Every structure is written in structure tokens, then in C-alpha cells.
């Protein structure tokens, strides 16, 4: 089946908000085995919205519209849909009662007259309760057998509604079972990974492999269709085995969906190690990624942000002679930072980052994007030289991802 997404809201077209809903729904549709060939954004204009919906219904089996279900005059999604499909609008007593309860028991305020607009629905539509707001979702089946689904725009209302009610509904529409697994690779670029599996990509039928890149990572999503979950998993298994053979230790997760920082923290816990960080150009981003992990306090006690040379000397014990001879951005300084941080924090593992994030400060010998990452583990220290592209923020984020992956590799090498 083919699904199409229509995001409604002038604020999307003006760039006032980031359309995270489309990304979320596209991923969910793919997981359900729905082919999503088109995504459309349209403003709060009834005629243009009707045109977009008419076109979508001509080429897709399922059309999901988000936004424009609120109480104000510019919320027109429901009205435009009913008009195009020739459906009268009627009051839904159940939704009206829920709106009354929401104001009475939730925000403890009188119901304003415009809120009753949300209890008006196209005749024959299946109403989906909104447990986090007042605008219900709607499922409409057309005379031609097409399905139109309307959901509220706020993500904190849309996500739980989709997960609880819409996803199970769509799951029943597809006769096959869809199973997927994601292999995550660190320290490699998307083009290199794709080149290494070019033969697999060209030969794929079922299951399929879909590569996509994140900063410092490449994810390979393997999806299989079968009559049962067990059969789909059986199809995926040899693909996972082959990817493991090709990429080996570059893979940081293959059997469970966890982040790079979660893998790093888990490895520290498994080896009973504590960690500290010494950051210059990343300014705390690295320690922040580690702290994102629940339970990071078991392995992380303190960190150092030593942006100035004086701080590197005072807090980490980096010799002034090292800084003067080699500079702050050098393998020698990165190594001294890692060793000094481990000593100062009493940690078995230390990651250091020093580099030139730009846009100023680069030279021919030390260009913008040059970053040195040091890793100390149980008395052993290694330094990695990296060259990143992009703006200042991208370089800093890339350095953090590479540092986590480098730390993971060093723990594999020198850990318990």
C-alpha cells in the first residue's frame, strides 16, 4: 500500500517550526511496510488544502494529514476534507463530553465557544480520542476504498495517538508482517559503507537494506516482509551475519537499538571502569552526550572544560613547554590532556578533545576542522587525528561522535 503525508500549517511553510511530524510518520510508515512516495506541506488555505488532498487521493491508498484541527478559524483541515469528500459535518457527543471533562478536570477553566468546533466531525468518520488534548483524530474511508487519517499537529498529541490507535489500525491493513533491525556503524562515512555493501544493495529484494547517515555514524536498516514475525526474522538473520563479517568491530550495535553513548557507558559498566573528559573545542558537548545516558553517574564523576591554555596547565597538568612547542591543537597536547584528566579525576578512562572548530583560527598547517582526540585506558594512551568539514557546530558535533567511538574502540583494546 502507498501512503502519503500532508502537513498542514502556514508556520511550516514560513520556517517558524521544524516539521518533525513528517519525519516521525515517514519512519513509522516504513516500519509498517507502507510505501511513502510523497510528502506535502500546505498552508492554512482551504482551496489549496483540498487540491493537495485530491491529488494525494489520486495516487495513494492512505493519506495522513497532520495539523489544522484546532479551535481557531485558520484550522481548516477537517472542513476542507469533509468538503472535498462531500460529507456533512455533525456534532459528536462523545467528543463534546471529553472537551467538557478536559476543561473541567484538567485546566479548570470555562470552555470557550470556539472549542466546540473540535466536536464537529465529518459524518461517518471514526473518531480517535485525544488523551493529551482536545482535538480528536479522525479516520475516514472513502467510497473508493481510500483511507484519510487526520491527526492533531502538536507532537505531544500526535505521537501517542499514532502509537496507541493509528498504528494498530494501519497494521491490520497490510497482509504481511514487517520486521526490521538497525545495524549502527561508527567512525565510517556513508559513501564508504555504501561502497562496501554495493553488491548487497544491488541484489536486494527481500529483505532490503536502507543506509542513512547521522553525524559520526551510519545506520543500516534491514527490513523484511513475511507471513509471520518469525519468518521475517529468519530472512534478516543472514544479512546481519554478513554485515557483521564485513564491518566487524566498526559496528557498535547490531542486536539492539541503542545509541553510541549508551554503548560507551554500557562498556564502561561492564568493565567496571570510570571515565572523565577533558574538552577544549567541544566545550562540554562530549560530557553532555555521556550524561544523556540514564545511569551515567555510575561511571562519570567529574569532567574538565579547559578552553584556555592556562586551564590545560592548571587543571590537567599539561606542561607549558608542550603547549609552547607543539601548540594547543596537537597530538602531544591531546595525549597530555587525557593522561592529566585521568590522574586528576582518578578515572581509568579519559577522553580528550582539542581542535580548531572555526570559522577563524585555521592555518595552512593546522586548518579549520583539524581535531585531535586522546584516549587513556588503564595506563595506555592513543591519539586520533581527525579532519572534519562543515560549520563550527557541525565540526564540534562530529568531534564528539568520533570521540565516543574512539573511546569504545580503546576500551575493547585495553579494557578488562
What does this structure look like?
The chain has helices spanning 10-13, 20-31, 46-59, 77-85, 93-107, 155-173, 190-196, 198-203, 229-247, 260-270, 285-291, 309-316, 320-326, 331-345, 392-414, and strands at 2-8, 35-42, 62-66, 89-91, 120-122, 126-128, 137-141, 147-151, 177-186, 208-214, 217-226, 251-253, 275-279, 304-305, 349-355, 370-377, 380-387. Helix content is 42%, strand content 24%. With 416 residues, it is an alpha/beta fold. It contains 15 helices and 17 strands. The mean pLDDT is 95. The strands form four sheets. A six-stranded mixed sheet has the order 2-1-3-8-7-6, with helices on both faces. The protein has a five-stranded mixed sheet with strand order 14-13-15-16-17, with helices on both faces.
Please provide a brief summary of the model.
With 416 residues, the chain is of the alpha/beta class. It has 15 helices and 17 strands.
Low-confidence stretches: none
State Rg. Answer: 27 Å
Number of beta-strand segments:
17
Portion in strands: 15-25%
Features:
6-stranded mixed β-sheet, 5-stranded mixed β-sheet, 416 residues, single chain, alpha/beta
Topology at a glance:
Layout: E1 2-8, H1 10-13, H2 20-31, E2 35-42, H3 46-59, E3 62-66, H4 77-85, E4 89-91, H5 93-107, E5 120-122, E6 126-128, E7 137-141, E8 147-151, H6 155-173, E9 177-186, H7 190-196, H8 198-203, E10 208-214, E11 217-226, H9 229-247, E12 251-253, H10 260-270, E13 275-279, H11 285-291, E14 304-305, H12 309-316, H13 320-326, H14 331-345, E15 349-355, E16 370-377, E17 380-387, H15 392-414
Parallel strand pairs: 1-2, 1-3, 3-8, 13-14, 13-15
Antiparallel strand pairs: 4-5, 6-7, 7-8, 9-11, 9-12, 10-11, 15-16, 16-17
